[in-house]
Design brief:
The structure holds two protein chains of two kinds. Chain A has one domain: Up-down Bundle (Butyryl-CoA Dehydrogenase, subunit A, domain 3), CATH 1.20.140. Chain A contains six helices and six strands, in the order αββββαααββαα. In chain A, a hairpin with a 4-residue loop joins β1 and β2. Chain B is 30% helix and 41% strand. The mean pLDDT of chain B is 81. By secondary structure, chain B is of the alpha+beta class. The chains are: A alpha+beta, B alpha+beta.
């Protein structure tokens, strides 16, 4: 290891990774991602992977088990956000490049999986809700993920109409953007740096970075 | 090799946190999975409200007085509406249709009325009527159809039932 290899090269930092890492640490505190509302406050469900808000007729409901899962996901995403930030910063040091690559590889795709898992979960939740309402005698065809519908219950000459709205909120779209930046940071990490060119790491097997053009002068 | 071991630890950490969080949640509820999942039924208040409105023992709307303004030819029916639910109820529309011979009389609510939880509010319906219809209505009884549209927290309940008009009922 030479003194030159141990230097911090700010230009080699994974800037998208640093941005995505910080964004991931902030993401859990931006609010709920998806909301289901029955009537005008008759029942509301506001969820994100980090929070679950449930209220019916002004009364709030709490699920200790779901809150525990939310807390675990919150800690995990902040943890991976921190890993992504640290990994992206350590890319500046050529002697820590391998460690940096590991950290970024472990954390860069997590937000994408989080968003995909959330979409699958709310789709299943929507279908389960529709089935549950139909079992209660309410005729309804709920839209998938977002949209509006009216549930109708008819009993002895009385018609009860329950408007239902499903919507994705702004923090969800922030999460999508952050996931894209984080995924891009994973790709950016594989690009050769001045430091790796010094050590010739671009020729290591498994390195996705293309070799330097033959005409390009060696650093 | 060392980085690989670090990687395993890092990847296992969120899983350990999840297991720990679930264990704590279950421990707090005495390992009662049902209580830990959802201690109360979130659809409970909605079901209670609908049951209160649909299965009430007494009619929600009852009539009590009739007044006829000969000058304008308007019949005013005064009644009351009860709210058996535990939440404020808004009467958005109330219409009473009576057929007297070949004539039809329709009395409707001028403006929405809000009934407090468990309370009763007076409702006034009015409509133009011929002296013959007015006589029938003020005489004490008449058969008619009552259409009610209620709203409780955005949930609309509409009903149309045959309801005889009884002065003083």
């Amino acid at each position: 290891m030479t003194g030159v290899q141990a230097e911090w090269r700010v230009a080699d930092c994974n800037i998208p990774g640093i941005v995505a890492g910080i964004c991931l640490c902030v993401l859990p505190f931006l609010g709920f991602w998806w909301a289901v509302r029955f009537g005008d406050g008759a029942f509301a469900l506001e969820v994100s992977p980090f929070t679950l808000g449930m209220s019916g007729f002004g009364q709030a409901f709490f699920s200790p088990l779901i809150a525990a899962v939310n807390t675990a996901v919150l800690i995990a995403i902040i943890f991976f956000g921190a890993l992504l930030t640290v990994g992206s910063v350590l890319r500046c040091r050529s002697d820590l490049r391998e460690f940096s690559d590991d950290l970024v590889r472990m954390s860069a795709r997590k937000p994408v999986w989080l968003v995909l898992a959330f979409l699958v979960t709310i789709t299943i939740a929507g279908l389960a809700m529709e089935y549950s309402l139909q079992q209660s005698g309410i005729e309804i065809a709920l839209p998938v993920i977002m949209g509006e519908a009216v549930g109708t219950l008819t009993a002895s000459g009385v018609v009860v109409q329950v408007p239902v709205s499903l919507s994705l909120s702004r923090p969800f779209w922030y999460a999508v953007v952050f996931a894209i930046i984080a995924a891009y940071a994973g790709l950016y990490q594989k690009r050769p740096t001045e430091g790796t060119r010094d050590t010739g790491r671009e020729n290591e097997p498994g390195d996705a970075a293309p070799p330097a053009p033959s005409g390009e002068p060696e650093a | 090799m060392e980085y690989s071991r670090n990687g395993t630890v890092i990847m296992a950490l969120p899983l350990v946190i999840l297991v720990l969080a679930l264990t704590i949640a279950l421990y707090q509820t005495g390992f009662d999975v049902e209580a830990a999942t959802l201690p109360e039924n979130p659809a409970g208040p909605l079901e209670e409200t609908l049951t209160a409105l649909l299965e009430t023992d007494r009619p929600l709307v009852s009539g009590s007085a009739t007044d006829y303004d000969t000058g304008t030819g308007t019949v005013t029916l005064t009644g009351s509406i009860a709210n058996p639910a535990a939440y404020p109820l808004t009467v958005t529309a109330l219409e009473y249709r009576v057929a007297v011979g070949n004539e039809a009389f329709i009395a409707s609510l001028a403006a929405p009325v809000v009934v407090p939880p468990g309370g009763t509010e007076t409702v006034v319906l009015s409509g133009a009527a011929s002296p013959a219809v007015a006589r029938t209505l003020t005489s004490g009884t008449a058969d008619g159809m009552l259409s009610v549209s209620l709203e409780v927290m955005g949930i609309t309940v509409t009903s149309e039932v045959a309801r005889p008009w009884e002065v003083g009922a």
